[in-house]
Amino acid sequence: MMSRQKGKAGEREIATLLTVLTGFDVRRKVRQHAGDADLEGVDGWEIEAKRYAAASPAVIKLWWRQAVEQAERTGAKPVLFFRLDRGNWCAVWQAGLHQSPRPTAPSTDFDDTLTATPATWWSLVKGMP
């Protein structure tokens, strides 16, 4: 139960941060079903959010795979936001999306991603079609 509450609080936290960064009304999806993204409000992006005490690189790779699988179902671009205890929010997204030519499909390979702050993610991808 505590981890579920922590997850919800993390989703609200990153939603508020993304609202400030993007100017969009980013919010938690109230009724989440298995396979749904956690947040909505940034058109064209399927947003997965994770808030955990700790996570190994292998676990973060699993989170990325989950984000990609969700995005494939909707035709959106995947982005993963995560924060570990005493850490800052990190954004993970597919490399090359802000360049031309763009990748044609999301890759579940974590080696094909970029990791940076949410502000850096937004500065690189805002205005993308």
What is the compact description of this entry?
With 129 residues, the protein is α+β, with helices and mostly antiparallel strands. The protein has helices spanning 2-22, 57-74, 118-125, and strands at 27-28, 39-40, 45-52, 77-84, 90-94, 113-116.
Task: Fill in the keyword field for this structure.
single chain; alpha+beta; 129 residues; four-stranded mixed β-sheet; two-stranded antiparallel sheet; 3 helices
- The 3D shape can be described as globular
Structural class: alpha+beta
Sheet-strand content, in percent, reads 15-25%
Rounded to the nearest angstrom, the distance between the terminal CA atoms is 39 Å
Tally the helices.
Answer: 3
String of helices and strands: HEEEHEEEH
Order of strands across the widest beta sheet?
3-4-5-6
Q: Unreliable runs, pLDDT <50, ≥5 residues?
A: none
**In terms of quaternary structure, what is this?**
single chain
Radius of gyration: 14 Å
Largest sheet: number of strands, sense, barrel closure: 4 strands, mixed
How many β-strand stretches? 6
Nearest-integer average pLDDT:
90
Helix fraction by DSSP (H/I, runs of at least 4): 25-40%
